[in-house]
Specification:
The chain has 560 residues and is α/β, with parallel strands linked by helices. It contains 21 helices and 12 strands.
């Protein structure tokens, strides 16, 4: 266990809640103390669902520990069945209730309820949320599909002549990043290929729907973190193959279409040239050429991180300088992807370690989770969210998938806009002191009225501090300090004018005030590269501090 202000994943019972909340006709009885009911807010506040999750908590308190908490659980389970009349029930314990070892599965079995009851053994202190969601879906599929499974060794009968092929879509859950819209996008794509959708699960499915999974010809795995374990079991039990390609990005979507067409025995050609696919041309267009070579750091769940790195490098012309994930179960996928971009993979669920890596690499765009959004904001770097965990703004009312051709369009807009805003900020900064456009200048067509607002007086010492940190042309606040921290070299304001040499310690990038001001005149979208080249030039020649002359010498050197 680790005390932290932020965690990428909750305990595994939150993953079980994501499965239960996504489905209909399923109820989850959770043996948990009163404080663990906070999880409802994840779905009602962040995902903006219009009803509470289908979860009954036993909500035992400290005084109950001296009595029979097992009887409390049995009463809660019995009452939940009587009230909600579900088709099936999940039973389990939260991380706190796990410590009292009441065995919810055994207790529920003793009730002899007239519905399937699936006990969940989720080790809260060894596993986390995504694993909990995967294990819950697997146990649910296994429990509900086993009664319909053929005998071991049975050869699957070929599809009847004239019957359309069918598939299941597996993996979308509650609280998933754009899962609702991904279902719509991929369902439309598959139906346009002449393939029927048998069941989408767990999102929107009932236990009766899950029991029909074996009727499909094959499975489409949209989110391996949730569905790969269940898909593997269905392949062994029902001889159903499943897809391996995740359709995020134009290239991956085309490969996915070809894979699905091969499994279904249909022609992929009619859907490969989808006219909605605009991101490829936009990425090559004149308006977007300044994006080429931008340094990008990618972090998230493994599925979205690998897909984002591929899009960044192959479809948008970015340079991937770092990739990582918090999903240790899928660390191998990230390590394989890192080899493609010749970078060091980061496998960590410590947000402070992620922040240090971002500060060290100095990317020009961060693609990550809600946490990386906060980190990037502190470092003054543009950011786009590509993966859960996310906040309320990443559950938009509009249609905004990540998968398919329309998803590629959404991704292009989402990633490019932060960089364009950076360009706009740079232009605003350039002209902010202009006699016609400065902050206190009135509108040009109202100039005869004069300035309508008075300037706010600022004390000299305050003004100098503000101008030193918040000038529009200055580099992002905090970047220099964070980089210095990462390199384990601290310096105070009193020695900024000093000259570090090999004799008094390792070389440190120290910029004098005039050089920093001159650097601020360089456009936002190439300023980071100019800083890195200048510091490299100065370090190779043991020059300190870096002056305006050093800046222009470095420019001449690298411009040859």
């Amino acid at each position: 266990m680790q005390l932290t202000l932020w965690t990428y994943e909750g305990p595994p019972h939150i993953g079980a809640m994501r499965i239960a909340t996504a489905m209909r006709g399923l109820h989850y009885v959770l043996h948990a103390p009163q404080g663990d009911t906070y999880a409802d807010l994840l779905f009602t506040m962040i995902e903006r669902r219009d009803q509470r999750p289908p979860v009954t908590y036993t909500t035992f308190q400290a005084r109950d520990l001296g009595s029979d908490t097992a009887e409390l659980f049995k009463s809660a389970a019995r009452d939940a069945y009587d009230r909600f009349q579900p088709q099936a029930m999940l039973v389990g314990a939260s991380c706190t209730a796990e410590l009292i070892q009441d065995d919810p599965g055994g207790l529920a079995k003793a009730l002899n309820l007239p519905i399937p009851v699936i006990p969940l053994e989720l080790p809260a202190y060894q596993r986390k949320e995504n694993w909990g969601a995967s294990e819950t879906f697997y146990q649910l599929v296994r429990a509900l599909c086993t009664p319909h499974a053929p005998a071991p060794g049975t050869v699957r009968a070929p599809r009847e002549r004239g019957k359309r092929p069918s598939c299941n879509l597996l993996g979308p859950t509650g609280l998933g990043f754009r899962h609702r819209d991904d279902i719509k996008e991929i369902s439309g794509l598959i139906i346009s290929m002449g393939i029927d959708i048998n069941v989408v699960a767990p999102y929107g499915a009932t236990p009766a729907d899950v029991a029909r999974l074996g009727e499909a010809d094959f499975n489409v795995v949209l989110y391996p973190e949730t569905a790969s374990q269940a898909a593997s079991w269905l392949q062994r039990t029902f001889a159903q193959p499943f897809t391996k390609i995740i359709p995020i990005g134009v290239g991956a979507t085309r490969e996915f279409i070809a894979e699905v067409a091969a499994l279904a025995g249909v022609d992929a050609a009619p859907v490969l040239g989808d006219p909605r696919s605009r991101s490829t041309w936009y990425a090559k267009s004149v308006d977007s050429t300044y994006l080429t070579g931008k340094r990008v750091f990618v972090f998230g769940d493994a599925t979205h991180a690998v897909a984002a790195a591929r899009i960044a490098a192959k479809e948008m012309g970015f340079k991937v300088v770092g990739i990582g994930t918090y999903s240790r179960e899928f660390a191998r996928d990230i390590r394989e992807a890192a080899k493609l971009y010749d970078v060091e993979p980061l496998i960590s669920d410590d947000y402070l370690e992620v922040e240090a890596r971002i500060a060290e690499l100095q990317p020009e765009l961060v693609l990550g989770t809600q946490m990386e959004r906060h980190i990037a904001k502190r470092l003054g770097v543009p950011c786009a969210v590509i993966s859960a965990p996310v906040h309320v703004q990443d559950f938009p009312a509009r249609y905004a998938p990540q998968m398919g051709f329309e998803g590629a369009n959404v991704i292009f807009d989402t990633w490019v806009h932060p960089l364009m805003m950076g360009l706009e900020e740079h232009l605003l900064g350039m002209f902010r002191e202009d006699f016609e456009f400065h902050d206190d200048a009135g509108s040009s067509h109202l100039s005869h009225l004069g300035a309508s607002k008075e300037k706010t007086e600022t004390k000299p010492q305050q003004q100098s501090a503000v101008s030193a940190t918040n000038t529009p042309n200055s580099p992002p606040i905090g970047v220099v300090d964070v980089v210095a921290t990462v390199t384990a070299t601290a310096r105070s304001d009193n020695n900024l004018a000093g000259t570090p040499t090999a004799a008094n310690g390792p070389w440190v990038a120290v910029w004098d005030a005039d050089a920093e001001k001159e650097l601020g005149k360089i456009p936002f979208f190439v300023r980071g590269k100019a800083r890195r080249n200048t510091e490299r030039f100065a370090q190779e020649r043991a020059v300190a501090p870096i002056t305006v002359e050093t800046l222009y010498d470095a420019k001449a050197h690298f411009g040859r």
